[in-house]
Amino acid sequence: MEPKHYHVVFLNDDYTTKDFVTDVLQVIFHKSEAEALQLMEKVHVQGAAVVGTYTYDIAVTRVNLTMKIARQQGFPLRCELKEA
Fold it and tell me: Which of 54, 72, 14 lies closest to 63, judged by CA?
């Protein structure tokens, strides 16, 4: 039986910079620059976007790392897990 998968969803806010979101998507989520830019724009325009789908442990690790780095940089970026 395959483990459950979870979507990591980024939520838009008025303070986190587009550059920071793009960088996080490339470094933590291993997206290409083009894919990171596309996802960042989707979050900005639609208010939220699924940035990846992973097993629970990987999803939680990436969410926690993203939130930690965002807070260290002073950004209120929010991301959450949703069951896939």
Answer: 54
Strand 5-11 with 48-55, pairing: antiparallel
Token pair in block for residue 39: 């996802």
* Burial degree of 63 (CB within 10 A; 0-12, 13-18, 19+): buried
Check pLDDT > 90 for residue 20.
Answer: yes
Within 10 angstroms of residue 5's Cβ, the number of other Cβ atoms is: 14
10 class by beta-carbon count within 10 Å (0-12 exposed, 13-18 middle, 19+ buried)? buried
- pTM of the entire predicted model: 0.94
